[in-house]
Amino acid sequence: MTKILERIWSVLISLRLAVCVIVFLALSLTVATLIESKIDTPTARYLVYQSPWFFVVLAMLGVNILAVALSRWPWKKKHIPFLLAHAGIISILVGSWLTYVNGLDGSLRISEGEINSAVEMDEQMLVYKKGESVMTEPFPWMPEFIAKDLKPKIFPKMGVQVERFIPDAETKVNFVVPVGEAQAKQKAGPAVEIRILGSPMGGAPEIWLWGGDAGWATQKMGPARFLVRRDDQKDLMDLAGTPGEARLDFVVSKDGKLHFEATSIRGEKKSGPISFEGEEPPIVNPGWKMPIQVQVKKFVPSAINQTEYVNVVNKAAGMGSALPNPAIQVSLLSNPASKIWLGLGDRAEFIETDGSEVSIGYFPKRVILPFAIRLKQFEMKHNPGTNEAAAYSSYVQVVKALQKTEAEMDALPVEHITMNEPIKVLQYTFYQASYIPDFPRPTTTILSVNYDPGRFLKYWGSITLILGAISLYLSKVVKTKKQTETHSKELDS
């Protein structure tokens, strides 16, 4: 047994092990850099930076360095430069491990005047809700070459399976009349596809509204909100909007007819039927002061969501844009034909064979901060003569008691976050990362939130490593000088 331990120890302190580990680590980092430049960062993280084998390589580096340092025991004064360099590397490795295990690196989205404390992480979760029961399961991201051969992943406790996964997806939206017994069991609602004419944002944007889910039923565009509902859907009828915004409701009566109810910013109301008798899609004039008209391109009185996701063609992201999100196709184990696509942040309602309703969502993992951030104002500057953003920043307030009144929150100190000047609250650092465009100016900011418990060890390790390297160099210079002087004296004598 003693001989075995001696052999293991001789391997751990050997120069051969150190060279092998360092060379393999260098090759790994080179490969990861190439993957980042040719594909993307998530793929590099999946294949290298957060892979089990990479952690093993880093652990072997740490064990080798620690073993070599202990092999010099008892330490002497001449060992100080050597120990400083080795202690620096170990400190960096330990600090990096603490950051990985206990750190936080996510994003916080806040609209002007709103408060949020939920940080979205770069991890995805499958969320299942039935009645008061809620379950969550992680569903980690994977690159395309693995996802395309993915076998259905079953979550037996939820009674759900994920059939397909697209790492970088774009949406193909459609709502159709249910066909067959399987589709008839999916939750249905009225759907309209509308085209906004005379939009102050330019162009003629087209959107779908669907009353089968509150997340699909309404959408805000500039100063106006659009909504679709049945006339008996009180949950959607009372859906709160922002005070002072215009609103246009598309309402479906019990006999399947469509009419509109419009409210202007000043509270003026207008309503009327929508007729599909002509050859051209009908156009609704809500009677607002702004010159907006709405064309109803398609109307389905009772539709199911048949939205699909496909691989995105161009993943390039410009300023203020987000990289493509993943998407999954899910179904109930009790009803395999109940397939539906969910993009990140989506949820869908299903009807079980016993008639009970279940909700399945696909969301980023969220971490709640011990305080909240309120976006007082978002500010953006443009390049002269263009609509291109030159710089953007956020004026925020830190709210440590959510029960504060509006007047008390208005009196809170205002912090300014720019792209180059973050702020720090407790141990969390907030950076200006991006924004979501809206009219008349971007009103939703995206802040990057970072908490790094290993930062001190990494900084300390870097300083110690540099000091150790300088000390090693100086000690060799001094040693060489002494040897030269000794040799010169011997020649003189």
Total of DSSP H or I helical runs spanning 4+ residues: 11
- Please identify the structural class as seen in this structure: alpha+beta
The major beta sheet can be summarized as: 10 strands, antiparallel
Strands, count: 25
Q: Any idea what the shape is?
A: elongated
The overall number of domains is 3
Relative helix content:
25-40%
The radius of gyration computed from the alpha-carbon positions, rounded to a whole number of angstroms, is 30 Å
Q: Report how far the terminal alpha carbons are from each other.
A: 56 Å
Beta-strand content bin:
35-45%
Fold topology:
Elements: H1 2-12, H2 15-38, H3 41-49, H4 52-71, H5 80-102, E1 104-111, E2 115-130, E3 133-138, H6 144-147, E4 153-155, E5 160-172, E6 175-176, H7 180-184, E7 189-197, E8 206-210, H8 214-217, E9 218-221, E10 224-230, H9 234-237, E11 246-252, E12 258-263, E13 269-273, E14 283-284, E15 293-305, E16 308-311, E17 325-332, E18 335-343, E19 346-351, E20 357-382, E21 389-399, H10 406-410, E22 415-417, E23 423-425, E24 428-436, E25 444-451, H11 455-492
Parallel strand pairs: 10-11
Antiparallel strand pairs: 1-2, 1-25, 2-3, 2-20, 4-5, 5-16, 5-17, 6-15, 7-8, 7-15, 9-10, 11-12, 12-13, 14-15, 17-18, 19-20, 20-21, 21-22, 23-24, 24-25
Helix pairs in contact: 2-3, 2-4, 4-5, 5-11
Description:
This protein has 493 residues and is of the alpha+beta class. The chain folds into three domains: 2-103 and 454-492, no CATH class; 107-116 and 367-451, no CATH class; 122-366, no CATH class. The protein has helices spanning 2-12, 15-38, 41-49, 52-71, 80-102, 144-147, 180-184, 214-217, 234-237, 406-410, 455-492; strands at residues 104-111, 115-130, 133-138, 153-155, 160-172, 175-176, 189-197, 206-210, 218-221, 224-230, 246-252, 258-263, 269-273, 283-284, 293-305, 308-311, 325-332, 335-343, 346-351, 357-382, 389-399, 415-417, 423-425, 428-436, 444-451. Strands 1, 2, 3, 19, 20, 21, 22, 23, 24 and 25 form a ten-stranded antiparallel sheet that branches. Strands 4, 5, 16, 17 and 18 form a five-stranded antiparallel sheet that branches. Strands 6, 7, 8, 14 and 15 form a five-stranded antiparallel sheet that branches. A hairpin with a 2-residue loop joins strand 23 and strand 24. The protein is elongated and about 120 Å long. Mean pLDDT is 86; it is low at 317-321.
